[in-house]
Amino acid sequence: MIKLYGVPRSRSLRVSWTLEELGLDWQYHYINFAKGDSRSTDFLAVNPCGKVPALVDDELVVTESAAIVLHLAEKYGDRKLLPQPGSDASALHHQWVSFIITELEQPLWTIGKHKFALPEELRQESMFPVAKWEFDKAAAIAENWLPESDFLLGDEFSAADILLAHTLVWATRFEQTIPPKLAAYRDRVSKRPAMAKALEKEMAGAE
Predict the structure, then answer these.
(1) Pairing state of beta strands 54-57 and 60-63?
(2) Cα separation of 98 and 100, whole Å?
(3) pTM of the entire structure?
(4) What's the start-to-end Cα distance of the chain, in Å?
(5) DSSP secondary structure string, 85-133?
(6) What is the mean pLDDT of residues 34-42?
(7) How far apart are CA 81 and CA 74, in angstroms?
(8) What pLDDT was estimated at residue 79?
(9) CA pair distance 155, 40, nearest whole angstrom
């Protein structure tokens, strides 16, 4: 049985969404940071960083959301969620994944760290304008790159779409301005049934 450790609406949602897209059986383990779950001996044995998401797949433990999503797609996808390895589409897919994680998401996590993740004495409100500038720059590039098709690789939904749509939802919750094409893409892709099922399971697990 696949086990996912996470917090609703966090990066773990990318993983639960992927699990639902692939139709896999999985268990959700809610990590309550307020109660110290992330510092427990049991969880630190899974992820010494004390962060979510973390995935246990038989004997394998994988952390880092993009790595987990790609692992699941490669192992269980059966040609779903990933283009043919070595193809031009695969290169474009890798480019999108790298850009999403390193450029688009990075300023959002800067905001998150200085809002709630860092110890209070280390939080700096002066970082918010810097992060907004960085996000706006990356979002403008993504807006220009975004194709006219339904998904990033044309008609085929991919792991990169999960990562981008979730990142844009996260950006919206952080009150960032989303360019119009990206906003329409976010609204369209985040309405997929697998996304709704994943969020429902995460919320139920946190009750």
Answers:
(1) antiparallel
(2) 6
(3) 0.96
(4) 22
(5) TTSHHHHHHHHHHHHIIIIIHHHHHHHHIIIIIS-GGG--TTHHHHHHH
(6) 94
(7) 8
(8) 86
(9) 44
**H/E segment holding residue 2:** strand 2-6
Q: Quickly tell me which residue has 């959002």 as its tokens.
A: 108
Nearest Cα to 97, choosing from 146, 43, 160, 155?
160
Calpha distance 142→140 (Å, rounded): 5
Residue 166: the pLDDT is 98
- What is the mean pLDDT of the segment spanning 113-142? 96
Please name the helix (run of DSSP H) or strand (run of DSSP E) that holds residue 26, with its range, or none: strand 26-30
Tokens of 68: 């987990």
Statement: residue 1 has pLDDT above 90: no
Q: Tell me the angle at which helices 12-21 and 65-76 cross, rounded to the nearest 10 degrees.
A: 10
d(CA 10, CA 138): 21
